[in-house]
Design goal:
alpha+beta, Arc Repressor Mutant, subunit A, two-stranded parallel ribbon, 32% helix
Amino acid sequence: MSLKQPDEFVENAQLAGKFPAPAVLRNARGIPSFCFNSPIGWLQVIGEGASVSRLDFDGIPPRSIPEIPNVPILRVVFDILTRYFAGEKVDFYHVPLTLIGGTEFQIAVWHTIREIPYGETRSYKWLAEQIGRPKAVRAVGGAVGANPISIIIPCHRVIGSNGRLGGYGGGIKRKRQLLELEGYPVETLK
């Protein structure tokens, strides 16, 4: 996958250029953050202390090439995302996270998702069984969909037991692209 910007993002960047850039590299709550230009779209990464608290797809690119705040965890995440999107097999498991707003059930699901190895998939049913709630497959699906830290909590690696991709907060196209990037044989999916 190339790190070039798709035309639609160049056009969006021109649109974003009409709005003033923030004075400091912080999100609306004053927490350090940065935008990352990935091959599948802009990502917003928010760090809190020594951990990541959010990684979302951001539809509007920043006005200019963003700088990374001088926050060690954000520099680590920038490096690991750069290597990941360059096709390097990376392990997100050791990136420290702060999971805000999740229920005990959701947090258990998110921690279990982190155990899915690079380039592999697991089913919603598998997740339910791993957290000791084998009948809670639909609830697991809801928890997967509420994942606040995409890619680092690799919910794109969760598929249906029937071999279907299932949903993805960033869109099915992105889920397929992430699995392809990791070398997963997406042609086997329904």
